[in-house]
């Protein structure tokens, strides 16, 4: 495998290594199904931080969707995404400082999965995503929650900052996640940019300590939706501009 030429190569490699994931059925597919039931049939979708494309390329196969455009910081990742049917792919090397290469209010739907936690200046990317989203359009944004109760136990017992093993080969000095979110601060950031939270999808990422694995799936999803800071591995919301 060639090495991506990108300052975000560690992040991009993590996505590239997931290429064996089925682009039609993976852990993010239920999130997209639920989000699309509310968004409708957008004529233009932008996946900001698309990686190798395995998590959103399914939207084209589902039909009822216009153009699917991806943006990433790794040329190698974009080469992989090109194989999965994206209509257009753009390289943006630094999401913290570079503008997104689109006019204002271009897209009805913008997706941003697991990107903000990597950025020195996540606020700058949120500004840009809001700018390229049409008035009345939607943004689906997801960030990891490192410290639900299960994560807090890992930190307490094992002094692990990588509480869910996202990057097993990383050290603390090169750990790719540099921003950490809870529900309050995540929503505060988005609402400060004029976005209205319309639907929580955090229940797709239940993180229950081992003792809770005897619970039904319904109970786990209820806890992760009701108390995401304690029981969800991600904060995932649909917002409206």
Quick description:
32% of the residues lie in helices and 19% in strands. The chain has helices spanning 9-16, 29-39, 58-62, 75-82, 122-132, 149-158, 183-191, 217-226, 228-231; strands spanning 44-48, 67-72, 88-91, 107-113, 133-144, 196-200, 234-240.
Topology:
Elements: H1 9-16, H2 29-39, E1 44-48, H3 58-62, E2 67-72, H4 75-82, E3 88-91, E4 107-113, H5 122-132, E5 133-144, H6 149-158, H7 183-191, E6 196-200, H8 217-226, H9 228-231, E7 234-240
Walk me through this protein's architecture.
- By secondary structure, the chain is α/β, with parallel strands linked by helices.
- The chain has one domain (9-240): Rossmann fold (3-Layer(aba) Sandwich).
- The protein is 32% helix and 19% strand.
- It contains 9 helices and 7 strands, in the order H-H-E-H-E-H-E-E-H-E-H-H-E-H-H-E.
- Strands 3-2-1-4-5-7-6 form a 7-stranded mixed β-sheet, sandwiched between helices.
- Helix 3 (58-62) links the parallel strand 1 (44-48) and strand 2.
- The longest helix is centred in the first third of the chain and has 11 residues, at 29-39.
- It is globular and about 50 Å long.
- The model is unreliable at 1-19 (pLDDT under 50).
Q: What is the chain-wise order of helices and strands? A: HHEHEHEEHEHHEHHE
Distance between the termini: 40 Å
Portion in strands: 15-25%
Query: What is the CATH level 1 assignment?
Result: Alpha Beta
What is the second-level CATH architecture?
3-Layer(aba) Sandwich
CATH topology: Rossmann fold
Biggest beta-sheet profile: 7 strands, mixed
Question: Which class best fits the helix and strand makeup?
Answer: alpha/beta
Indicate the overall shape.
Answer: globular
Q: CATH homologous superfamily - what is it?
A: Vaccinia Virus protein VP39
Radius of gyration: 17 Å
The total number of structural domains is: 1
Low-confidence region ranges: 1-19
Total number of β-strand segments?
A: 7
Q: Return the average pLDDT rounded to an integer.
A: 89
